[in-house]
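Our consortium's second objective concerns turning raw sequence data into structural hypotheses that experimental partners can test. To show how far this objective has progressed, the report includes one record in full. It was chosen at random from the queue rather than selected for favorable results. The single chain below, 192 residues long, was entered without modification.
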Amino acid sequence: LSPERSFTKDLALEKQFGPLTVGVLAFDSAFDHKIDYVQIAPFVYKYGNLAGVSRSDGIVYSGTLRNWGIFDALIVAYTSQNSVKSDGTAFLRIPKASLTASAITHVDRIDFGLTWLWVGERPDAYYNSGTFGTERVTLASYSLASFQTGVHWNEAFSTRVIIGNLFNSVYTETTGYQTAGRRLEVECQYQF
């Protein structure tokens, strides 16, 4: 494999209106020798470099509202992007749109956060053993929620509990592979 070369241009604008901050970020990335899973012979695939220049461009719209009611922050970000290979076909598993929303608050030394993620439809491909060919499919959009809370015991020690996929949603990231259900993470952090 040859190394990928990339060049990215981006432009960000942000404006604050009292407790509300809004922003927009435009990006345009070009990839030369992009590494992807490519067919080298009938029924034979491996990682290789794509010929030509592949691109990914889009816009991220964001907003943060601070100190609103019981919330320290309400954060929303919407991403619209287009990612295509040098031959004009879409990269697999990259959504054209996604949305994230978070609410964060605290009581004394305890913080709480709730996050919701929506991922739009995206193209995928899989090997169909019945037809001995690669078939293109469209993966359905999905939503996930997560909850986290943490305690800052003192200046040096804190703990955090995270519940990912809070509602145990069934979703597909890659055709033919099972995704994680609800998960529990416990973190401890000590600063020396």
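The partners drew two points from this record. The mean pLDDT is 93. The chain has no helices and 13 strands. Both points have been shared with the crystallography group to help prioritize constructs.
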